[in-house]
From TrEMBL:
A biological process term (GO) from this entry: cell redox homeostasis
Source species of the chain: Mycobacterium basiliense
Keyword Oxidoreductase in record: yes
Pfam hit, one: Glutaredoxin
UniProtKB keywords: Oxidoreductase
Record-given protein name: Glutaredoxin.1/MT3292
Domain Glutaredoxin: 6-63
Gene Ontology molecular function, alphabetical: electron transfer activity; oxidoreductase activity
EC identifiers of the protein: 1.-.-.-
Length: 105
């Protein structure tokens, strides 16, 4: 199986995209961000999972596609579908902080 990743499809000027991308960066979750206005193939992916519309943000985690999710929903999807990505988050990211606060070792 190939390496899994979190792909965030977005477009300039979208406040929902900005909110999601900021929330994921704050959590240190590694993502691949794709601007659908500069990538026709990406726009086609979004239309294929958003009922023919170019609704962003759209996020794909493995085989799961989510239209306009919250950062928390993306993290939960990663936990369920690609947990190895949590271990790669920058500086241990939010997962390390959360585990330390919960007393996990």
């Amino acid at each position: 199986m190939g390496e899994r990743e979190v792909v965030v499809y977005w477009r300039p000027g979208c406040p929902f995209c900005w909110r999601l991308r900021t929330g994921l960066r704050r959590r240190g979750l590694p993502t691949k961000e794709v601007n659908i206005w500069s990538d026709p193939d990406a726009a086609a992916v979004v239309r294929s999972v958003a009922g023919g519309h170019e609704t962003v943000p759209t996020v794909v985690v493995g085989d799961l596609a989510m239209v306009n999710p919250t950062a928390g929903q993306v993290v939960n999807a990663v936990r369920a579908h690609a947990p190895e990505l949590l271990a790669r988050s920058s500086n241990g990211g939010w997962w390390t902080v959360l585990r330390s606060r919960l007393g996990a070792r």
